[in-house]
Every structure is written in structure tokens, then in C-alpha cells.
Amino acid sequence: MRGQERSVHNELSGVVQGASVQAAVVHGGLHIRTGGTAEPQPPWQLPPAVRLTDRTVEVERLDRHRALAAQRDHPALAAVSGLGGVGKTALALAWLHRLRPDFPGGQLYADLCAQAPAGPVDPAQVLGSFLRGLGVPPQQVPDGVAERAAMYRTHTADRRIVVLLDDAATAAQVRPLLPGRSNVTLVTSRRRMSGLALEGGYQVHLEPLSPEAAVELLAVTLADDRVATQPDDARALVGLCAGLPLAVRVAGARLAARPRRPITTMVRALTAERGRLDELAIDGDHGVRAALDLSYQGLPREAARLYRLLGVHPGTEFGGGVAAAVLGSARGGSAEGVSGAGTGPGTGEWPDPGELLDVLHDANLLIDIGEDRYRFHDLVRLHAVGKAAEEETAAERVAVFRRIADHYLATATRAERSIDPRHPLRERSYGPGPVITEDFGDGVRAALDWLERELPNLLAVIRRARTTGEQDISWQLADALGPFFLRRKHYDIWHTSHAEGLAAARELRDGPAECRMLTSGGQCALGRGDTANALEMFEEAARLFAAAGDELGYARTSNYRGLAHQRAGRPDEAAELFAWAAAELRRCGDPRAGGLARLNAADVEFGRGRLARAAEDAAEARTALLTADDSYNAARAATLLGRICLGDGRPDEAERWLAGALSVLREAAAHYETARALDVLGEVAELRGQRELAQGHYREALDLYVGVNRPGPADGVRERLRRLDEAGPSGSGAGG
Questions:
Q1: Exposed end of the chain (fewer CB within 10 Å): N or C?
Q2: β-strand 76-81 against 184-189: which pairing, if any?
Q3: Edge-first strand listing for the sheet containing 367-370
């Protein structure tokens, strides 16, 4: 029925959150059912594949292992080991991309960072990312590794997916990341993963390329006739590269940029470089290091500088904004608080960071991962770090990290303002500059998506800043992420970042900063259901505000303390705190926060059944919030007024309040509040005998409640739907 289709609202605006799923108005292929959410889009996370040379035997072995596992209805687990630069990831990507038609459930990818300076990635962090990629709302991701692993296996049991766990450190790091049922997992590592034997792990050790295959790869890289006309020199060159594909590509890229140069010149240079490295007793990957040294020496001056300074970047991937910040250039981003922006030392103007990134990519020193973003091969990153240590002073490396951190802080602060213009913002402190702000677009969604994409880098900066004496960056960046976490609910990363920020604020002995970290950390704990810890943090912040004589801060914290008491089932304490905060916040000049406290007080009174008092408080709160241009929270107040009117036997008035609130809440993607409005609209329709309309509202509300992990309200809606289903059409009235 057309009317019924409208009632269930085929706009699943809050069922699946985050950048991994697009779910606007959907026509077909989607089923809304009681007790479930919309099926998310499969994740396709594998990086692009590169051309594979002479790995036929290994691919056939992997195919046979997969076929045997399928015959036995077992998961297929294989581990590819070998030297750095031997092509483990290239083999893994080429093979797994071939399997896509047989595994429509998606592809999951994680770089486990065994060689990263900061150490291997925590499996809990990877599991959180995988679960969100599989469509699990952040609020539903549990805290512990065991709980996350169990949920992960559940969500992969009925899918057909492939998983790539790249650069693993140990079998223990891998085990929690193995999916459920008959899926395919491929692990790459420098070491053999014999510890995975109990899980059925099949070992594939990758040797360097044969001379013939390495020469073929060199010919493809050069794309001219030099290999054909200089075959002996070509064989000598790939021999010096030890048959490692990374070394061959790097050496070939340098020759390709010099089409008139014979291969023998590279052979002489690489022979000398290998001899130098052998004298330094570097073994294992010296063929790659020699090729990297020669390629580095052939770079233009500014490209070489960018290469080594990118080694200071603490994250795993980057784009033009980071490159501009590394160079101290105002090109590629806008500059805030710039000192000396626009001119380069001895050049007259700054080089374009994007062009320099292209130079490094053409030299096979960067991997293009799409959308103008790049990352290093782990050996190349270590080489860049080494060059920075050799050629840059410690002071310059510190300055480069500060510019990188300032870039992230300035852009995150801009995103913070876009998401919540009314979020109290303390003046940010930056280094000497220039400060480069990335242009991520306009609007709340663009800001949220930029922060989502950069979250691993932001957390890496927060952590490193504490250890390098840049504690002001650590707490300020954690502070800027507050509105993002309130929307996207990444509770594990929220908890980690604000714990780091709190420690940094305490090391600085910055009382106001400590209070901000305590308040935000308390909100995180409240969202995770840890009411006792939340209250403890709010009360500690209140003590600090009181000791500093900050009446406004103390009043704001009293509102949060009231929320903790309300969640803990202590309405008397909550009501007292809300009433005091509402009056005090108005007196201190923050009528918006006063309106929020009054709204919280109205909610407590409604729960006590004091409808007249609740209506008075909610109406005054709504007026104050509209005056403060806070339409979202004013809509929350309207929803409460609708609930009050329904409880008082005035369904028509309730519907007017709720209909007005619903459009605002949908626009704000406020999933829980949207569900509450729909829930009450369902009750209004049921009271009028509009059975199908009521069912439509309830079903959408249920999907939203489940999506934001609110089991109590969800159970209530399930009970109402069960009652309507049992009553059947004969139980419905004429309708209005």
C-alpha cells in the first residue's frame, strides 16, 4: 500500500552509521523487519592489486589449499612469509582480488604494523574497525578483545568474505582476527607463522624472484628496449637487487626517469652502494636498502627533503595536506597563524606538495592507495626515518612533527566547529607555524567523514605528542574530537584518546584542560554504561572548578552529574542537581546550557508522573534553546512535550509536537532521539486505531533503537508490535 510505504519511512537514516554504508532513500533490495537492522553494504577494504610477476607456483598452492578447505567445510587460513620487499603483499592482493566473485560478503584488510616504530597494532583496535566495517554500530562494539572476537565470528559466520592481515608480528596477534565459518584469511609476515598450525594455517614461504622473472619485472618497469638490448647488464642489475621485487622496481623507476642512461651505469652505482652497506654489516634486506639509497640520491632536492621528513609522520598514510605541513608550505592547504608562509628557503616560492608526492610515487617510493593518499612500504618508511636522522637536526625533526600535529589540530578544530558550532571552544595553541588546514569540504557530514578517515592518524599524534613534550597538542586534539565522538560513538578510541589527553593535561598542570578532559571522558563512560566511573570523573571536575572559582564550569558539570545520577536510578539527586544547574547557568550567562539542564529536569519530572511540572520545564527549556539557536535540542524538548501530551490524554496535540520534532531530528541524524519520537507517534496511531501506521512507526523505531544499542526501549517496542500482530486486522479501528 502506498500509504503504508510512507509510514515505514524507507529512509534508513540511522540504522547503519559511519562512512562504510550508504543508506539514503532505498528502492528495493532492502527488508525492514522486527528486531533487525538494514543489511549493510559489504566492505571492500583491500588496497588495489599490483602486477604480479612469476608467482604461479605459489598461487596454485594457495588455490589447492583453499579448495581442500572448502571440501572439508573448513575455513582457509594461509600465511605468506619472506624477506622485506620480496612481494608478500603483492601476492596476497593479487590472489585475494581474484576471489571476489566467490566471496560477495566483502573484503577486510588490516595492516598489523609489525615493523612500525610504535609497535604492532592491538588486535582489539583491528576488531573494532572490522566490526564497524561489517555494519555494527559503534555503540554495539564491546570493550574486551574476547567479546569483540566473539561478535566478529558471529557476524562473519553467515558471510563469504576474505581477510588480509598484512605484516603480522605473531600468531597471538592474528588469532582473534580469524573470521567464522568457511571464509578465507591470508596473513603476511617476515617470520613463518608456525604458531597457526593448530588453526589449520598453511605456510607459503616466498623466495626472491628467479633471475628470469626479475629481468621480466625490470623490462616492464622500464617499458623500453634497454633490457632487450642490454641483457647481461639487466641480469647483473637484478642480481644486485637480490631478486627482491621492491628493489627491482625502485632501481627500474630511477632508470625509467633517465631513458638515455644505459643499465650499466646503474650496475656500477648499485655495486658501490651494496659494498658500502655490506661493510656496515646490514644483512637480509641490503639489496633493497642499496636501491633505496641510489633512488634517494637521484631525487630533486625538495622531493628528497619531503621523503625524509615524511618519516617523522607517526601515522600510516597521508595526503597533500600533511605533505604541505611537513614542508612548512602554505601550498596544498590554507594557512592559519602562518609565519613565513609562501616562500621557500632559497627557491623564491614553495614547491607544490602534490607534484613532489607524484615524484616520489613515480620513483616507487610511495604506494598510491587512492583518493590522493599514499603510504610507505614498511622498509621504505624505515629508510626515510633513517635519512631524516642522518640529514636533519633533532630540532628540525621536532619542528616537523609540530607542524604535522598543528595541521591535524587546526583541521580537527575546524571540523569540530562544523559539527557543533556551540561546543565551548578554548583558544588553541600552535607552534611557530606555518599551520596548514586541510580543506575537507563544507557541512557536518564532510567534517565527520574527514575525522573518521583520519582517526588512526589523530590517535597516533595524540599518543606521540605526550612522549615528545608536546602535551598541549595531546589534550587539545583529544578535546577537538569530542563532538565527533558524541556523533559516531567510537567508545574505545574515545576512551583511549581522552585518557591520553587527561594525562597530558595533568602533566602540564593545566587545571581547565584537565576539567575538559574529565568532562569529556565522563561523557564517554556514561555512553559506555559505566555510570560509576562517569560520576567519579564529573565530581572530580566539579572539585577542580570549585577550587579555581570557576562558577560557570562548576554549574555545567553539575548538569553532567545529574545525568549520571539519573542513569544510576537516583531521580531525587538528579532533580536537585538539574534544578540548581538550570538557575545557576542562566545567572552565569549560559542560557543554552541552562535550557539543557531544564530539559533534563523535565525528563525526571515526567518519569515521576508529574506531568504539569514536566510540561512547564520542557516548554521553558524549548524556548531557551530556540533563542540560543539550538534547533536540535529544542526538537528534543518538543519530543518530550509530545510524550507529556499523550500521557495527559491529548493525542492530537502530541502529534503536532512530535511531527515538528521528527523533521529536525532526522535532518540531524539523531538516531536515538528520532526513535523516541517515532515510538511515541506509534503510540498515538495505536490509540487512534491506525494499526498499519502504528506498526510502521514502531518498526522504524525498533531498527533505530537496535542500531544505537538501546535494548530497553527496543524490548518495549517489540512487545507493542507483538501485541498488534496478535490483535490482527480485526483489532484495528476505523482510523483517522
A1: N
A2: parallel
A3: 318-319, 373-375, 367-370
